[in-house]
Design brief:
Elements (H helix, E strand, L loop, with lengths): L16 H12 L3 E2 H4 L5 H6 L4 E4 L3 E2 L9 E2 L9 H12 L3 E6 L10 H14 L4 E5 L7 H10 L3 E3 L9 H4 L5 H13 L4 E8 L5 H13 L4 E6 L16 H14 L3 E4 L9 H4 L1
Parallel strand pairs: 2-5, 3-4, 5-6, 6-7, 7-8, 8-9, 9-10
Antiparallel strand pairs: 1-2
């Protein structure tokens, strides 16, 4: 039986004219969001602020990470009009800061880097002043894919480490801890793009392992850090090993500062794109 969610991790359901408007714009443009597909607890807060995190390249993934609510299956071909639809939605929502993420597409030769780049370029054509953050898969560490991202030059490049090295094979069986670090390092060493990464806690990691992970991220040149509580999406996913208490996050903030992070969001319901604009 799944453990009851602590009260401080619960969010009320909000249905207002503004949230309905956001849903309508997304539906009209045939767009997915990670807010819906990954069952983000902050969805309604973000919708009331007229924002959402776009999920591109479909809503099924070629990997089967054991924490994620997005399904694993053979994906459909890319929608080549999607970059234009994303740009149109950014314009209709009146966004000043847009966040784009994707499923992992290991079936594509470049992992979808060209599609990410086209989204960035279409947004800039239609809404030149908007800031753009992308949250990408690891592209199997291919430098040619990362070079395409660099040429498109998002304002922020986010790639989540997600968990500590010792739990990687359990939590992310098709990913590699050092490869994720290398992706962040390559972007930092070959561009002036701000880099960002995040992790979930509550999967059985120790404080010492968290400290080692944050140290590794800092060494890789990561500028911005997010940490939040893992919440089990369904009984088919990994169980929660521990619910961190609100005071534990204050300890983690102190740790992040000690390691050298100047910009971070750390709290029970923090997710990688939560209040992203505030950090920039």
């Amino acid at each position: 039986m799944r453990e009851r969610l602590p009260e401080y991790l619960k969010r009320p359901i909000i249905d207002t004219e503004k949230t309905r408007t956001v849903r309508r714009i997304l539906k009209t443009n045939c767009l997915n969001t990670v807010c819906e597909n990954a069952r983000c607890p902050n969805k309604n807060e973000c919708y009331t602020k007229n924002t959402a995190t776009f999920l591109i390249m479909g809503n099924v993934c070629t990997r089967n990470c054991r924490y994620c609510n997005i399904g694993c299956a053979k994906p459909d071909p890319l929608d080549m009009d999607e970059p234009m639809h994303v740009a149109q939605a950014v314009k209709e929502l009146g966004l000043k800061y847009s966040v784009i993420t994707s499923v992992t597409r290991d079936d594509l030769p470049d992992g979808g880097a060209e599609h990410f780049a086209r989204c960035i370029e279409e947004i800039r054509k239609l809404v030149p002043d908007v800031k753009i953050e992308i949250l990408t898969p690891d592209f199997k560490g291919e430098h040619s894919a990362l070079d395409r991202i660099i040429r498109a030059h998002p304002d922020v490049f986010n790639h989540n480490i997600e968990t500590v090295k010792e739990l990687f094979k359990t939590v992310r069986p098709k990913a590699i801890y050092n490869r994720s670090l290398d992706v962040l390092k390559y972007i930092k060493e070959n561009s002036d793009i701000i880099t960002k990464s995040g992790m979930m806690i509550g999967l059985g990691e120790t404080f010492e392992q968290i400290e080692e992970t944050l140290t590794d991220l800092k060494k890789a040149g990561c500028d911005i850090l997010t940490i939040g509580q893992y919440i089990q999406p369904s009984k088919e996913h990994l169980p929660v090993a521990e619910y961190y208490k609100p005071e534990d996050y204050e300890t983690l903030k102190t740790l992040a500062q000690k390691i050298g992070f100047k910009h971070y969001q750390i709290g029970p319901l923090v997710r990688s794109s939560y209040r992203a604009a505030e950090l920039i």
